[in-house]
Amino acid sequence: MLDVAIIGGGPAGLTAGLYATRGGLKNVTMFEKGMPGGQIMNSSEIENYPGVSQVMSGMDLMASWPEQCQRFGLKHEMVNVEKVSRNKNGTFTIHKDDGSTEDALSVIVGTGSTPKRAGFKGEAEFFGKGVSTCATCDGFFYKNKEVTVIGGGDTALEEAVYLAGICSKVYLVHRREEFRAAPSTVERAKNTENIEFVLNSKPDEVFGDMMGVQGIKVATPEGIRQLDTTGVFIFVGNDVNNGVLKDENGNFICDVTEWGEVVVDLKMKTSVDGLFATGDMRLDAPKQVVVAAGDGATAAIGAISYVMEHK
């Protein structure tokens, strides 16, 4: 039986593996079907990870993480986990897509979330080349430039305000007249001078060349309007990758929010003893690598204590 099963090989999962093995646990396996590293591997430029002074790609940032973890004994099994179930004796069973299972005393889940796409022409082609879903990650690259934000929820308006502090102008494109965001958030955005609202409108096409985005065409009530911005930020929600926490009836084995985010405390504990959730899948996740890594370390410390108490 495993001491700890780690589901997901992003920054949270890798850091959890590092801390769990270096903390003395001998039987720790990380289940990640693909290459470890997580969503950050798709980022072309990162300059806000503490201690890393050089601008580098996400792939370069994560390159040494698996080797470091494996040096302390973390095992990596390249298989997809379909679900995690809780046994009557308090242990867990890991159900893999190859039909096999493995038992564990505790489980740390870090399967992340997937930003929703808006579905307009050119969005996939220019993703990472001017189209982004993270203002904190990429906003600085558009300092003193004009950008476009797409969305009408709290995140979209909050990130528009954030970008307004960096960029010369922010166009906020929303398909309705009214917003889903909190009234206070809407008021703050409306009081930000360099945010222009483009309402009852939706993105039609983003265009550019080999160098990246050059502009976006927006379908407005008056017709197609072209916004000559090189940065397009999409905030239309996230799909939490929480399928592994559902039982055979489709019910979650632990508490989640109405949006499917896993409810955890400050120690990354879920409502089920021995089960921890980390990174972008947990409640109020800032969706930053440094935070995900911190979540992983916190969860591992908790898992070590849990395993020692139940062995």
What count of helical segments does DSSP give?
7
Order of helices and strands: EHEHHEEEEEEHEHEHEEEEEEEH
CATH class of the largest domain: Alpha Beta
**Mean of the pLDDT scores?**
94
CATH architecture of the largest domain: 3-Layer(bba) Sandwich
Pick out the low-confidence regions: none
Give the CATH H-level superfamily of the largest domain.
FAD/NAD(P)-binding domain
Helix content: 10-25%
Task: Name the beta content range.
Answer: 25-35%
CATH fold assignment of the largest domain: FAD/NAD(P)-binding domain
Distance between the termini: 11 Å
Radius of gyration: 21 Å
- Biggest sheet architecture: 7 strands, mixed
Structural class: alpha/beta
Tell me the count of domains: 2
How many E strands?
Answer: 17
| Inertia-based shape | elongated
Give a written overview of the molecule.
With 311 residues, this protein is of the alpha/beta class. It folds into 2 domains: 2-114 and 238-310, 3-Layer(bba) Sandwich (FAD/NAD(P)-binding domain), CATH 3.50.50; 117-234, FAD/NAD(P)-binding domain. The protein is 22% helix and 27% strand. The protein contains 7 helices and 17 strands. The longest helix has 22 residues, at 289-310. The model has no long low-confidence stretch (mean pLDDT 94).
How would you concisely characterize the structure shown here?
By secondary structure, the chain is α/β, with parallel strands linked by helices. It has helices spanning 11-22, 58-62, 65-71, 135-138, 154-164, 183-190, 289-310, and strands spanning 2-7, 28-31, 75-77, 81-86, 92-96, 101-109, 113-115, 131-132, 146-150, 169-173, 195-198, 202-209, 212-220, 223-227, 231-234, 238-240, 275-277.
